[in-house]
Design goal:
Order of helices and strands of chain A: HEHEHEEEEHHEHEEEEH
InterPro entries (chain A): CYSTATIN_LXN (IPR049897), Cystatin_sf (IPR046350), Latexin (IPR009684)
Order of helices and strands of chain B: EEHEEHHEHHEEEHEHHEHHE
Largest interface: A-B, 79 and 111 residues
CATH topology of the largest domain in chain A: Nuclear Transport Factor 2, Chain: A
Protein name (chain A): Latexin
Radius of gyration of chain B: 20 Å
Structural class of chain A: alpha+beta
CATH architecture of chain B: 3-Layer(aba) Sandwich
GO molecular function, one term (chain A): metalloendopeptidase inhibitor activity
Number of helices of chain B: 10
Number of domains of chain A: 2
Shape of chain B: globular
Shape of chain A: globular
Oligomer: heterodimer
Radius of gyration of chain A: 25 Å
Family (chain A): Belongs to the protease inhibitor I47 (latexin) family.
Strand order of the largest sheet of chain B: 9-7-10-6-4-5-3-11
Keywords (chain A): Protease inhibitor, Repeat, Signal
């Protein structure tokens, strides 16, 4: 209608109330619980999906976490193997998945996924296999990818070569500014190094992934270029990862090299201790 | 008092101060991130009062009929900056839309909208301190020992508290607190919503990232009695989202789609018999994560608005059939035109006031 209306000048009191009493303690839990949540029906998938010890087997719901976590591992693998300052892969969608126990050694996932090359904005369907080894000693998952050739062959060679030549002798990268910054901004000149850091981080994210993690690189705290070695650009960087499942921000230092020919090679990694001093330093307002 | 035809909001305070705020005033950029003082400032978005830890905005059209309510909160987790941006956008959007959209006008006649743009105020302020605090998640309560801070507010509600998806280590980002509702922020919501729970049709809590719409319950052993309805409405919302910018949002319970958890505000709300309770996890999928670029604020808000509106419209239509809404609107028009003769001629019939969650 959009008519202009009379304003009703009512005495609108402050809508405040005091909290004083009502400490809602544990005794109310039983009241609520008895009234409402119903025990799960024989929803096999939902039940299985929830218990970490009894993981989903057989055909997986592609929208549920087991297939999603395994697919994310494929993303880390692709980035590590094929990523560059101008080539970065993301998981677009999981179409289908299957999981099976491999007698006493681990679990194997078979996935049909869509992979997205972020910079060129191209998409391709891929098949992948992810094997999570079991056992007390945490071993890295193993990944195999097939029918994904087009997206991996995407040519960024000329940009890569130009960047490589530019930074091999003339320029140097050194920044304390975080990538992205708090507002999600990355300077255009730093963008290739942000991508490179994601690729290098994928080494760690791949290595550390299990069926109970979901890693993304949250932020680069800093990246410094060191002297070129054996025709490889060399970098030292400090990255913040995000594990969705624990909601923690593990921090790592990485020493890695890169060239268009060799790709990213990680030389050294070091996990930093969980930093608490920020809690003490910055006092709340 | 304010003059001009662009008034869109009016608030009265206990001190009889009248502030007018333009919900689409040129100075407030809805597509940039704003620190707490800008969300709050007197001439800005929310009126500031001292000792007001958490403020929200109550919006609705005045009517004599008994109204139902919609709850939306943003920023339970400090680092999820896109969420408070969305709450602010949502308010602006409904205030603009109702003027020309009869459906929105009907909904605002029948329902009050309670929107809290930043629930975890201390945490949000802390995340703005410097670049090293940007990824803070919890509130800022001192921990049991001297050297840890913060409780995960979305594990602190009285809903299967402390059972799954938590850690007893006070340094952990999923530390659920000393006990259920140990935290003032959770107490405030519990009391405010709890004391008027029969009024609420809908409880939406906005987070990032992951592009998900999560339904109760976080505990794998419990299924909501209206699970099928929640899934249907959730899928409808996801489709509405997809239509805007082609972004896919997955729908399901937390344990199925993401991970098991307990003590969430959404689960607590569902246990209060509020039928339609959803957690929104906004963009993106991990490329930028918590530091979503400001250029993405607008498209993210547009799609999330579409999704939220789908849920709210469903909740409304289920409760108020078409005839009732029309009747109410008709009554209102009659009432208005009569009032117009006697009162100070002015421009709008919506009221907007700050509601205060005191803790």
């Amino acid at each position: 209608m959009g008519l202009r209306r009379a304003i009703v000048l009512f005495a609108l009191m402050e809508v405040t109330w005091s909290l004083s009493v009502t400490t809602i303690g544990p005794e109310t839990v039983s009241t609520d619980a008895s009234a409402h949540p119903e025990p799960a029906e024989e929803n096999t998938e939902q039940k299985e999906a929830a218990e970490e010890d009894v993981m989903a087997t057989g055909e997986l719901n592609p929208n549920h976490y087991p297939a999603q976590r395994a697919a994310k591992v494929v993303q880390h693998y692709l980035n590590l193997r094929h990523g560059s300052p101008y080539k970065l892969f993301g998981l677009k969608e999981v179409h289908s998945g299957n999981a099976e126990e491999v007698a006493d050694s681990g679990r194997k996932y078979q996935l049909e996924i869509s992979v997205h090359e972020i910079i060129s904005n191209t998409k391709e369907k891929c098949s992948a296999e992810v094997f999570f080894p079991s056992g007390a000693k945490q071993l890295s998952p193993q990944v195999q990818v097939s029918s994904c050739e087009e997206i991996l062959k995407l040519d960024a060679k000329s940009e890569e070569e130009a960047l490589y030549q530019q930074y091999k002798t003339n320029k140097t990268v050194c920044t304390e500014k975080r990538l992205p910054d708090s507002y999600g901004h990355v300077d255009p000149e730093m963008t290739p190094f942000w991508h490179l850091s994601i690729v290098a981080s994928s080494f760690i994210m791949l290595k550390e992934s299990t069926e109970n993690t979901l890693y993304n690189m949250a932020q680069v705290a800093n990246i410094t270029q060191l002297a070129t070695e054996n025709d490889q650009l060399k970098f030292d960087c400090h990255v913040l990862l995000h594990d969705m499942v624990s909601q923690e921000i593990p921090q790592w230092k990485l020493l890695f090299t890169w060239s268009p020919a060799e790709g990213v090679k990680v030389l050294h990694t070091e996990q930093l201790p969980h930093i608490h001093q920020s809690e003490k330093q910055a006092k709340p307002n | 008092f304010c003059g001009g035809g662009m008034q869109l909001g009016l608030f009265l305070s206990g001190n009889s101060h009248v502030f007018c705020a333009l919900s689409n005033k040129a100075e407030y950029d809805y597509f940039q991130y704003h620190p707490m003082e800008e969300v709050r400032e007197p001439a800005g978005w929310l009126r500031w009062r001292r000792n007001t830890p958490i403020t929200g905005r109550l919006i609705g059209l005045k009517t004599d009929a008994k109204k139902k309510a919609i709850w939306m909160d943003c920023g339970i987790h400090a680092r999820e900056w896109i969420a408070p941006a969305f709450c602010q956008y949502f308010v602006r959007q409904i205030l603009q839309t109702y003027k020309t959209d009869t459906k929105m006008e009907a909904m605002m006649t029948n329902m009050d909208f309670y929107i809290t743009p930043v629930l975890n105020v201390d945490g949000y302020i802390f995340s703005w301190t410097n670049s090293s605090t940007r990824l803070w998640r919890k509130n800022r309560s001192p921990g049991p020992s001297g050297d840890c801070y913060g409780t995960d507010l979305n594990r602190n509600f009285d809903a299967n508290w402390g059972t799954v998806g938590v850690s007893s280590d006070c340094n952990s980002n999923i530390y659920p607190g000393r006990g259920p509702i140990s935290e003032p922020e959770a107490q405030a919501v519990t009391y405010f919503v709890g004391s008027r729970k029969e009024d609420f049709l809908c409880f939406l809590t906005i987070h990032s990232y992951g592009q998900l719409l999560l339904i109760p319950f976080g505990h794998p052993d419990f299924t909501a009695s209206n699970y099928d309805e929640l899934m249907k409405v959730g899928e409808g919302a996801a489709e509405a989202i997809w239509k805007v910018h082609g972004k896919k949002y997955r729908v399901g319970t937390s344990p199925a789609v993401l991970y098991a958890n307990s003590g969430s505000s959404r689960d607590w709300a569902r246990m209060q018999d509020i039928p339609l309770t959803f957690t929104f996890e906004l963009r993106d999928n991990g490329t930028y994560g918590f530091e979503l670029p400001q250029e993405e604020i607008q498209p993210t808000c547009e799609e999330a608005y579409s999704g939220a509106l789908h849920i709210i419209t469903y909740a409304h239509d289920k409760t108020f059939n078409g005839a009732t809404a029309t009747a109410a609107a008709a009554v209102w028009t009659t009432l208005c035109s009569k009032l117009h003769t006697f009162l100070v001629p002015s421009v709008f019939s919506s009221f907007m006031t700050d509601f205060v969650l005191k803790a």
